[in-house]
């Protein structure tokens, strides 16, 4: 097959299913920074360690990832993948810590009777949940952003509308962080899939966990706040 024939065949394959230049790092980095800032400003009883513990470790790991791939994520070194997963694990553990402490405080009645403060803490925990799961979806779908750039895995973990209807989408479309952010937001608010379907078992389980955390957080915080206001 000639070079022109190869180029023609590649043009007929949607971008998400073929090798591309790699996704820009900026939006995902902004979400990580946003989460770390939330950790720094959360009330002491919701934080994991001191105010600087999670942000300090998180920014150090983020700096390593940024130095290795400052613009586009297309490097597949094992050590980079491990650093990324360690960072995601840290963010997830900090989020779960905050959720557990929020629920414990609400059940034990130890949370302040200040409705505004309670709602503020609830919003911070909900935003943490929203950002962490968006990052996990982005980090794990088809092996992560670098693996997606090299089209390592043909079968998606999340089926986006553009994949189901390629004739209605730009051939250059491929899922990027904003798409996973939207997926996380709708799952955290509707407590179920909307237009993005989980295909693999881990994707279904992860979405189920996120919906459960969001439902418990919202219902308990609202119930307590209404009780305080009465």
Structure description:
There is one protein chain. The chain has helices at residues 3-12, 26-41, 53-68, 78-108, 115-140, 145-149, 161-164, 177-190, 201-229, and strands at residues 23-24, 72-73, 158-159, 197-198. The chain is mainly α and 230 residues long. It has one domain (19-229). The longest helix has 31 residues, at 78-108. It is globular and about 60 Å long.
What's a quick, concise take on this entry?
By secondary structure, the protein is mainly alpha-helical. It contains 9 helices and 4 strands. The protein has one domain.
Question: Descriptors for this entry?
Answer:
single chain, 230 residues, mainly alpha, two-stranded antiparallel ribbon, 9 helices, 4 strands, 66% helix, disordered N terminus
The rounded distance between the terminal residues' Cα atoms is 75 Å
Based on Cα principal axes, name the global outline.
globular
Order of helices and strands: HEHHEHHHEHHEH
Q: Spatial order of the strands in the main sheet?
A: 1-2
Strand content: under 5%
Largest sheet: 2 strands, antiparallel
Radius of gyration, in angstroms, nearest whole number: 20 Å
Low-confidence stretches: 3-9
Helix run count: 9
What's the total count of β strands? 4
């Amino acid at each position: 097959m000639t070079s022109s024939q190869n180029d023609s065949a590649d043009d007929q394959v949607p971008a998400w299913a073929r090798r591309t230049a790699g996704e820009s790092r900026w939006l995902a980095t902004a979400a990580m920074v946003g989460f770390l800032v939330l950790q720094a400003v959360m009330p002491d009883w919701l934080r994991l360690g001191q105010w600087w513990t999670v942000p300090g470790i998180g920014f150090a790991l983020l700096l390593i990832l940024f130095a290795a791939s400052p613009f586009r994520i297309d490097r597949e070194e094992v050590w980079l993948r491990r650093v990324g997963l360690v960072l995601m694990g840290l963010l997830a553990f900090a989020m779960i810590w905050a959720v557990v402490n929020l629920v414990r405080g609400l059940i034990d009645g130890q949370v302040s009777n200040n409705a505004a403060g309670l709602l503020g803490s609830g919003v911070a925990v909900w935003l943490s949940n929203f950002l962490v799961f968006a990052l996990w979806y982005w980090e794990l779908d088809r092996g992560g952003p670098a693996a997606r750039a090299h089209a390592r895995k043909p079968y998606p973990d999340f089926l986006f509308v553009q994949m189901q209807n390629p004739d209605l989408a730009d051939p250059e479309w491929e899922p990027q962080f904003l798409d996973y952010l939207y997926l996380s937001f709708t799952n955290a608010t509707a407590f179920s899939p909307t237009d993005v379907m989980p295909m693999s078992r881990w994707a279904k389980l992860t979405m189920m966990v996120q919906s459960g955390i969001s439902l418990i957080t919202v219902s308990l915080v609202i119930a307590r706040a209404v009780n305080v206001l009465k």
